Structures are given as structure tokens and as C-alpha cells.
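To start, an entry.
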Amino acid sequence: MNVTRMIWHGGTLLMTAAMMAATATAAAQQLASTSHARSATAPKDSTNLKAFRGIAPKLHTTPEALRSAFERARQTNPKLSRGNFIAANVLADNLGARRPNVTTAAILAGLEGGNSLGQTLENLGLSPLESKQARKAAERRVKDGDQRVKDEDKRRQRERENGERHNG
């Protein structure tokens, strides 16, 4: 029984990774094919990508693919916030291996139905305590990613300033 469970979990992990890779690839292809059609009135890429830069590597995708997925999700649920979208992806990534029914799509569907993240996780089988712990872990993961990007940006800025001093 234990070996069967391990094989099942391994298969679930591989399927999740394959689905995320396929989604990221499709989103990147869609972005590449439509980027030439964007007009000057479209929002600046750097502004939109900024919120996705920290968490994208932790989700094994690109900021562009994540932004594209967010834009598609907003077509279904115009009230969806970027924060809830990112949280749904992180929660699904964190919990999906142990709880295969906790997927990004399932969480987004719960949010679209008017439920909070906590209510949605509880509807997917987590206890209130597990839901709270999962949300806090997701928040920490997002903050860690954002802090990494801020630190990297500061380091690059210092390098540019030092380079200007030495060249100027």
C-alpha cells in the first residue's frame, strides 16, 4: 500500500509539472504571437510584469506566462485580483502534491463563486487550521520572492551607480 501511494504521488507530481509546463509554454507562445499586435495604448510591460517577477521562478514559469494566465483568468472573473491569482497558484503548487484536488483552477473557481481563499480551501477538504497555515505559507513564499527581486534590483542599481562613477 505504501509503495502504491508513493507511485500515485509521484505520478501526480509529474502530471502537475507537465500541466504547469504546458500552460507556461502555451501562455508564452500566445504572448509571443500577440505581442506584435499590441498598440501604444496597452499598459507598460514592466509595470504589469513587476508583480509576477518574484514568484514566477518559484512556480517554475516566467513572469510573462504568469501575467498571460492572469489576463485569461480575469476574462472569466473580472473581479479577480492579482494577489488572489498569485495566491491561488502558490497554494496549488504548495498543496497539490499532497492534495490533488487543490489546483489553481479549483481555487480560481471558488474565488469566482464568491468565496474567500480560506473558504475555498476548506471546500476543497482542508480544515480551518490547515487552510490558515497554507495561506500563511503562501504569503511567506510570495514575500520571499518579492524580497529577492527587490534585493536584486537594489544590487543592480548600486552596480550601475558604481559603474557611472568609475566611467564618469
